[in-house]
Specification:
434 Repressor (Amino-terminal Domain); mainly alpha; 0% strand; elongated; single chain
Amino acid sequence: MQPEQSFAGRLKCLREERGLSGGALAAKIGVSKVTVWKWEKGDTTPRPLALNALAKALDVSVAELQQPGAATAADAAAESLESGAETLAETMAEAKRKIAGVAGIDPSAITISIDY
């Protein structure tokens, strides 16, 4: 695997190195074949839980799936989920405090929604 590869390229390379079809990987992590295909084409990227499941299924760290030196929110969230360091409620409360601080408003005025 080449370090300069995109996430999509690394994912496909790792999957193929392990002798898995797209369907087999999808079944291992509980998503559809189309979802894996879209990740490998670069059309979409996995959410933190799926990213964590991919890393486990491919026996690599989340960081290895992503470009070296380019830590993302998804990586941080996946690592947090793996370690159990923060709950979703704690993460959202902290985000509200930070947003409110930057905006100069009370955190109670901040609403965060998550669409799955």
